Task: structure prediction
Amino acid sequence: MDKERFRELVTEAISALPDEFRRRLENVDVVAVDWPSPQQMASVGLKRGQMLLGLYQGVPQTKRGRGYGMVAPDKISIFQKPIEARCHSEAEITAEIGRVVRHEIAHHFGIGDDRLRELERGKD
Result:
């Protein structure tokens, strides 16, 4: 898949979010890149050869106090090549992008990986 199409799918995934979430995505930069950097992999404890599909870097909304302000945007990176390696069709890529975007945005709202795994398994 070419980069432009992948970026379009990321944009569509963000547009598909409920309004109440999109409105609260202030000061967040969402980027689509080919691969995670070694620093990004290390930041989540992964080594070369392991797969990282997306990454949230920033201060979750639940951790922001009154003094929070005048900071660089939070960043959500969506990694094209690992997603493509996991998927076998454009429909699968589209679905996976949507899942990864929702997962990383959940981190922005302060939801941790353990709770996200529970939600993805259908537990409340």
The helical segments are 3-15, 19-22, 38-43, 80-86, 90-108, 113-120.
